[in-house]
Specification:
The structure holds two protein chains of two kinds. Chain A is α+β, with helices and mostly antiparallel strands. Chain A contains four helices and four strands; from the N terminus they run H-E-E-H-H-E-E-H. By secondary structure, chain B is an alpha+beta fold. Classes of the chains: A alpha+beta, B alpha+beta. The interface between A and B is large, with 38 and 43 residues.
């Protein structure tokens, strides 16, 4: 089974303010969007990110072939326990998930 | 029609001068640029300082002052000096005076200040005027009053008041990213949904187009919607690039909250006018019953001392996780024994650069490198304590053996002293809005003698 990053064009993660993270999966094609929209569950994403699935806000945007996943930061930006000030590396966690 | 020229996503990021020149020839009604963001962390607000170099800020600001003079239109900056504190407004006023001296120009200059007195915010909190946004940390009055700086994000109303002073240069403290762009179109009666939506699309300059680094963008607002026009030679906006920008650093791609209401772009349409320009219509502005402004605040979370060692011995590289676990336990016991400090009075984060330092427990592919960096971060209430705890760590990072039988190893330290004091570190503690009876209640507008 392929990984998310092999099916889509690009995964990007950023802060959305100091208390939220947002991950954008740019699928590129209708086929890739359909594959990931169905094959990547919010539950799997929540497990990989170590967060509660009910805290995740997910937008499957057909017009753009984009899946957007937003979640409260498990560690607030800049807290001594924060390893990634700009939330840059969360994209890799999602990109490396195997698609169902 | 109202034309707003946006030179780049932030002052300090540079802009394409030829494209800016092209924009000036198109007769803009206002030049708007953003000076800040929380994206680089709490230290800038906590200390009230700029992220960008003063030298870059001055060169670029002087270029924009000249552009505004040539265009004969106002120049507005929001969130001066990264964090938008009063001190950063004054910092940019100083830079402005130097630029104006050098240019031999004496325009009217207005400042809009956004900083809040923590005790006053504490009083408003106690009287129920401060409420939490989704994902906010727990808040009490003491946390508010401990903040070193609190700023309120001004919206279009406060920028409009500044524009009404007929100032040629407006230097604003913290504003929303969009307010400086949306203010004039709204004043002139352009479509409200279009004004806010166009402002959101333009707030990062040409990031909504191809060649995002080129910066310069013109947005034309009218009674129905807006048109996005990137101005660099090789920059093109397409319906896709424009629509995609609603995703950027935004938790909800369809809704954007602003003082006084929210923008809803669910039904917006995006149409390519030609190879370069995109037309957007159908965005909606929904006014709220109450006028609220978002607050940002940071307080000191302790002081830090860092140590860094590098490990090259292959056996230690292979067993690094077990090695730092052992060090962590021994060091904690030593700190308690030597200083009597309670475990909750300090923290030590040991991270293996090359293995999993970026993701920690989320890492599923730990590295198998030739060498490893060990980054040790000590956080304690004051610098002396953090340094002392760092000194107690030092011998372990230099000499700790994997087993008691082996000869004492030595690891590589890049610095002497090994302990690097970082000073105070800050934390964001507000993700809240404050209700105002009048938009100017929390803000101060002055026309100054520059």
């Amino acid at each position: 089974m392929p990984e998310v990053g092999e099916v889509c064009d690009k995964v990007r993660s950023k802060n959305a303010g100091p208390f939220w993270l947002t991950i954008d999966i740019f699928c590129g094609t209708d086929d890739a969007f359909a594959r990931l929209s169905g094959g990547l569950t919010t539950k799997r994403v929540a497990e990989a990110l170590g967060t509660d699935p009910t805290a995740i806000r997910r937008f499957d945007i057909k017009d753009l072939n984009v899946i957007k996943i937003s979640l409260p930061r498990p560690v607030v930006q800049g807290h001594p326990g924060d390893r990634d000030m700009h939330g840059a590396a969360w994209a890799s966690v999602v990109a490396e998930l195997v698609v169902d | 029609m109202t034309r707003i020229l946006v030179p780049s996503g932030a002052l300090g990021l540079d802009y394409d001068e030829a494209a800016l020149e092209r924009g000036i020839r198109m007769n803009p009604d206002l030049i708007a640029i953003d000076g800040g963001s929380t994206d680089s962390g709490p230290s800038y607000l906590g200390n009230g300082v700029s992220k960008y170099a003063r030298s870059s800020t001055k060169v670029e600001w002087k270029g924009l002052i000249e552009a505004a003079r040539n265009a004969g239109c106002p120049l507005v900056i929001g969130t001066a000096g990264t964090c938008g504190t009063d001190g950063m407004v004054d910092w940019l006023v100083d830079i402005t005076r130097e630029c104006l001296d050098e240019l031999g120009w004496t325009p009217r200059v207005a400042t809009l200040k956004s900083e809040q007195v923590p005790n006053e915010v504490g009083q408003r909190f106690a009287s129920g005027q401060v409420s939490a946004l989704d994902g906010a940390p727990d808040l009490d009055r003491k946390t508010i009053e401990d903040c070193t700086h609190i700023v309120a994000l001004a919206g279009a109303e406060q920028i409009q008041q500044a524009i009404e002073t007929a100032a040629e240069i407006i230097i604003a403290g913290r504003t929303t990213d969009t307010a400086t762009i949306a203010a004039l179109p709204l004043m002139r009666g352009d479509h409200a949904g279009g004004a806010w939506h166009g402002a959101k699309i333009a707030e990062c300059g040409a990031l909504c187009a191809t060649n995002p680094q080129s910066g310069v963008l013109m947005v034309e607002f009218d009674k129905v919607g807006f048109t996005v026009h990137p101005l660099a030679d090789d920059a093109r906006a397409t319906p896709q690039t424009v629509l995609a920008h609603m995703l950027y650093e935004n938790s909800d791609p369809f809704i954007l909250h602003e003082p006084g209401g929210h923008l809803d772009v669910t039904d917006a349409t995006y149409e390519a006018l030609d190879e370069v320009r995109v037309r957007v219509e159908g965005s909606r502005w929904v006014a709220s019953d109450q006028y609220t402004v978002k607050l940002e605040g940071a307080r000191v979370a302790g002081c830090q001392t860092l140590l860094m060692a590098t490990i090259r011995d292959p056996r230690y590289v292979r067993n690094a996780q077990a090695w730092i676990r052992d060090i962590g336990h021994r060091h904690a016991a030593k700190v308690e024994n030597r200083t009597g400090l309670a475990p909750e009075a300090w923290r030590c984060d040991l991270r293996l650069v090359g293995i999993d330092s970026t993701l920690g427990e989320m890492e599923t592919r730990p590295g198998a490198p030739t060498e490893i960096g060990v980054l040790c971060t000590i956080t304690a209430e004051d610098q002396g304590t953090a340094n002392e705890i760092g000194k107690l760590m030092n011998p372990y990072l230099l000499h700790h053996p994997l087993t008691s039988e082996e000869e004492q190893p030595t690891f590589s330290f890049p610095f002497s002293p090994a302990e690097i004091d970082r000073g105070p570190v800050h934390e964001f503690c507000l993700h809240h809005v404050m209700t105002l009876s009048d938009p100017m209640d929390a803000f101060r507008l002055d026309v100054i003698n520059a």
